Amino acid sequence: MQYLSTRDKSLRVSAAEAIKMGLSRDGGLFTPVNFPVLRALDVEMLRGMSYPRRAAYIMGKYLEQFRPEDLGLFAERAYGPDRFDAPGVAPLRQLDQHTWCLELWHGPTSAFKDMALQMLPQLLSTSLRMTGEEKTACILAATSGDTGKAAMEGFADVEQTRILVFYPRDGVSEIQRLQMVTQEGDNVGVCAVEGNFDDAQNGVKRIFSDPAIREELEKRGCFLSSANSINWGRILPQVVYYISAYCDLLNAKEIKLGDKVNYCVPTGNFGNILACYYARRMGLPVGKLICASNRNDVLTEFIRTGVYDRNRPFHATMSPSMDILISSNLERLLFDLSGGDDQLVRSLMGQLEKTGRYEVPGEMREKLGELFYGGFCGEEDTASTVAMLYRCGYLIDTHTAVAAKVLTDYRRETGDMTPAIFVSTASPYKFCDSVLSAIGETPAEDSVDRIAQMEAVTGVAAPARLAALKGKAPRFHQVTKREAMENVVLDFLK
Ligand SMILES: *Cc1c(COP(=O)(O)O)cnc(C)c1O
Questions:
Q1: Which of 188, 210, 348, 455 could disulfide-link 358, Cβ–Cβ 3.0 to 4.6 Å?
Q2: pLDDT digit string (tens) for 379-436?
Q3: Candidates 101, 146, 324: which one to mutate for ligand 1, based on the most atoms within 8 Å of Cβ?
Q4: Is ligand 1 within 6 A of the CB of residue 272?
């Protein structure tokens, strides 16, 4: 399978090259030339497999260049019992007769980013070998809180790689910050940026497209790559759990093969829901793709009107990993919905850069509306949804609450009671402050003490690695202005 750039489809590369580079030189995102078909026979086979075997099987359809036995090994490692504390890796929890929650946070950093970032380093290492690359891959990541930690955890001490993470200084939860600044490993670095996530992400994009930096790094024997969801190696492992969840519903006899299932995804950079769309493209019977946003509702408006407009106030919310106004992966969706019109994509992305706004043509807007539903959930509703589900015996985090609420709104508005899965993207223990407040408790003074407090109040066990943050000393203290991110990179790669 070959991959092309969303901004120039004559530019084609192998999977290994796409994963190694992360972002295309022209600023476009690598996308598969076509989508492998998931046949009934495939699904029948997948049903009988463990999660790691399902992952190797599905990823193999996109990565023919990789040896199947290698992919099998990578998946066993990535999703092994030493890394994931749930036997099914990504378990479904039933809430009522037609609603399930897909828990994607049982990995080492307690957020769904682990599902991909436990896999990406292994894909990248192999890609370096396959392309004969001798330089060191330097991973630059901008994080809204969860990517940074999960990427460092995945890349820590991986040969021929270094990783530097930028996070918005005032835009992550205290637990998220502590997880990052206490990260171990000789090849990792962390730096706070004075600004929000979009500032950090724009800074990283700027560095990627700076020829002077590229040249300087080349001299030092390094090149830049990405662990953000612009990297195909991030999206692909995420396609797996949508198919896997469908298989689990089949095995539980809740649905029959061919029955539609709606998926509701709490969305920021549009990577997770894009993976669901790609699963649908492969033939998975996905009904509606429900895109749930917080108060930063730029995607809700886009899905409803076809106008993307980032010129609006930025809100810091209690679901900070979704505080994003520029959803990078939308570019891949635009490319696909336009039938692969790279010129159109280039023009829309150019407008976004210049004016912060673009509008898609009428027929694309129609397709968008048929496939997707967009909704958002404000702060009060987020808190009351956490409280409501807690009273029903289920403790969820604030991002998951956004999805739960938007699914309810969707059903009320449309009457569509198709079986639905809403996606749980983080452990409630990553956002103790907001979750404790939502369930009517006063959070303890110290942020790490809130973990034990929440355990005591709720009786739900905290993930072991979060509980272990207590008493860990920070290793990183650096803060930078947005304009000076270049210098941080050059210093780090000395
Ligand atoms: C990253 C993240 C999201 C948003 O996912 P995207 O792929 O960026 O849309 C939602 N919830 C949590 C907890 C996250 O870490």
A1: 348
A2: 999 999 999 999 999 999 999 999 999 999 999 999 999 999 999 999 999 999 999 9
A3: 146
A4: yes
Q: 146: Cβ below 6 Å to ligand 1?
A: yes
Residue 432 identity (one-letter amino acid): C
Dihedral (CA of 63, 425, 366, 255) sign: positive
**Conformation bin of residue 66: beta by default, left when phi > 0, alpha when psi is -120 to 50:** beta
Q: Beta strands 92-96 and 99-103: pairing type?
A: antiparallel
The pTM for the full model equals 0.96
Give the Å distances, CA to CA, from 21 to 27, 169, 185.
11, 27, 23
- 426 CB under 6 A from ligand 1? yes
Tokens representing residue 420 in the block: 């639905």
Q: Are 122 and 55 within 8 A, CB to CB?
A: no
269 lines ligand 1 (CB under 6 A): yes
- Which strand ranges, in their side-by-side order, compose the sheet holding 2-5? 8-14, 2-5, 30-32
* Distance, CA of 283 to CA of 480 (rounded, Å): 46
Residue nearest to atom 14 of ligand 1 (CA): 321
User: For ligand 1, is residue 270 a contact (CB within 6 Å)?
Assistant: yes
How far apart are the C-alpha atoms of 36 and 5, rounded to whole Å? Answer: 18
At which residue do the structure tokens 């005032």 appear?
Answer: 170
- Please report, as a single letter, which amino acid is at residue 299: L
In this structure, what are the phi and psi dihedrals at residue 443, rounded to the nearest 5 degrees? Answer: -60, 140
Task: Calculate ∠ Cα 444-449-450, nearest 5°.
Answer: 60
> Per residue in 142-194, pLDDT tens?
998 899 999 999 999 999 999 999 999 988 888 999 999 999 999 999 999 99
Closest CA to 101 of 315, 265, 305, 274: 265
Burial label, 206 (beta-carbon count in 10 A; 0-12, 13-18, 19+): middle
The atom number, within ligand 1, closest to the CA of 397 reads: 13
Strands (E) in 426-487, as ranges, are: 479-481
The DSSP code sequence of 56-94 is HHHHHHH-TTS-HHHHHHHHHHHT-TTT-SSTTSS-EEE
Mutual angle of helices 51-62 and 40-47, in 10-degree steps: 150
Q: What spacing in Å lies between the alpha carbon of 172 and ligand 1's midpoint? A: 13
Q: Which of 267, 382, 405, 422 has most ligand 1 atoms within 8 Å of its beta carbon, as the pocket-test mutant?
A: 267
Torsion over CA of 263, 268, 274 and 276, rounded to 10 degrees? -20
pLDDT confidence band for 378 (50 / 70 / 90): very high
Distance 321 CA to ligand 1 centre (A): 6
